[in-house]
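Human: I would love a firmer grasp of how sequence relates to backbone shape in proteins. Take your time, and here it is.
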Amino acid sequence: MAKRSVGKSKAELKVAADEILREAERLGVSSNFLFATTFARYQVQLEVLDKLEASIRSVGVTVEKSYVKGEKNLCANPSITEYNRTASAANGTVGTLLKILAAAGGVKPVKAEDKLSALRAAVENDE
């Protein structure tokens, strides 16, 4: 069975990050402390997510846990929990970046129902 990539490739993420930076430069907020630190944090989060995803792919979704008495138990890979936490944090960071750009007049704020429509459109376009 062939593996299908769910997320974007590193190259696609770099292009998206470059677009965010270009928009920030256009709006004059690229050197803003809040934007710069938030964007740097987002890049770190993407790197962490990439490493966690690689770990999950190489080890698998389950791992063996050994107990003191030598008994072994199969349990969920802890990288999955960390991946989910980091993904949630990265989503929040993107929200902050978009708010900064929106406050500068560059990005129109997205309502919750519009986010669902955008997600559906992205999934349909990816298939």
User: Anything to note?
Assistant: Helices lie at 10-27, 33-59, 78-103, 112-126. The radius of gyration is 19 Å. Residues 10-126 form one domain. The longest strand covers residues 62-66.
